[in-house]
């Protein structure tokens, strides 16, 4: 089975000259189709940087990042854009468009699907908003939603695009424990039913049991403590 994500000898730094700081050092990691991998580690150790590199949001500086078998190092902007259409990202700060309603934000995800009518894409958006418990908030702007509700809109938007790979940065951060549990069960279902690979950064000890594999990061390195959940 080909890995969805394959990282080898990945390094990344920010800044230049005396201000240059290496934040990822020699990272190697695979995520298989249908696998849920949880990435934990102290604040500032490089988890978000790693997710954004896999999500083709940053240029790879050193080492290899393969997603769906395609090498991202040296990939053109157009190729990275094409790849991003197959990747769902739930990022911190929600990244919702402020002038669009919850429904319209989710529809942006559904719009990435080819061959669906407007009505089918709208129904799909509404269905995902229902799944995340926001049926009563379709017409609200992000400004009128709580942090947890915005998080759920962002999750619905990522899932509406039927991603083959899902990268989630602290998806349960602003959710109560019940909603947080529902959301991770949803992501796990996506992995198991659709063979989607899921890589999730989390500090939330309540959700560690959904992982097929836990990976720990410290100071830009994956520790040998990466282990499989029985
Ligand atoms: N654009 C940037 N320019 C300079 N330094 C950056 C940039 N982005 C991140 N960093 C630094 O890189 C290091 C790793 O940051 P990153 O956000 O990847 O960590 P993290 O493990 O996700 O942290 P947290 O759990 O707090 O979100 C931090 O020291 C951060 O300050």
Automatic annotation (TrEMBL):
CDD domains: ABC_MJ0796_LolCDE_FtsE
SMART domains membership: AAA
Alphabetized UniProt keyword annotations: ATP-binding, Nucleotide-binding, Transport
UniProt GO molecular function: ATP binding; ATP hydrolysis activity; transmembrane transporter activity
Gene3D superfamilies to which the protein is assigned, alphabetical: P-loop containing nucleotide triphosphate hydrolases (3.40.50.300)
GO cellular component term of the entry, any: plasma membrane
InterPro entries, per database record: AAA+_ATPase, ABC_heterocyst_DevA, ABC_transporter-like_ATP-bd, ABC_transporter-like_CS, ABC_transpr_LolD-like, MacB-like_ATP-bd, P-loop_NTPase
UniProt superkingdom: Bacteria
PROSITE patterns found in the cross-reference section: ABC_TRANSPORTER_1, ABC_TRANSPORTER_2
Domain ABC transporter: 5-229
Name this protein carries in UniProt: ABC transporter
Organism: Cyanobium usitatum str. Tous
């Amino acid at each position: 089975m080909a890995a969805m994500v394959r990282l080898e000898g990945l390094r990344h730094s920010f800044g230049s000259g005396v201000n240059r700081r290496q934040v990822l050092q020699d990272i190697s990691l695979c995520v298989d189709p249908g696998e849920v991998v949880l990435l934990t580690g102290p604040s500032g150790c490089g988890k978000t940087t790693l997710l954004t590199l896999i999500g083709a949001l940053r240029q790879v500086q050193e080492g290899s990042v393969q997603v769906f078998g395609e090498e991202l190092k040296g990939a053109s902007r157009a190729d990275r854009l094409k790849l991003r259409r197959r990747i769902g990202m739930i990022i911190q700060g929600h990244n919702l468009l402020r002038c669009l309603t919850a429904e319209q934000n989710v529809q942006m995800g559904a719009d990435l699907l080819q061959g669906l009518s407007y009505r089918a894409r709208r129904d799909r958006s509404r269905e995902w908003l229902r799944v995340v418990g926001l049926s009563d908030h379709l017409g609200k702007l992000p400004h009128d939603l709580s942090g947890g509700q915005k998080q759920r809109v962002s999750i619905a938007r990522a899932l509406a695009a039927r991603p083959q790979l899902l990268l989630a940065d602290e998806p349960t951060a602003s959710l109560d424990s019940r909603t947080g549990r529902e959301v991770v069960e949803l992501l796990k279902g996506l992995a198991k039913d659709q063979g989607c690979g899921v890589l999730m950064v989390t500090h939330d000890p309540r959700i560690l049991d959904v992982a097929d594999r836990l990976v720990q990061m410290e100071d830009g390195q994956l520790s040998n403590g990466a282990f499989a959940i029985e």
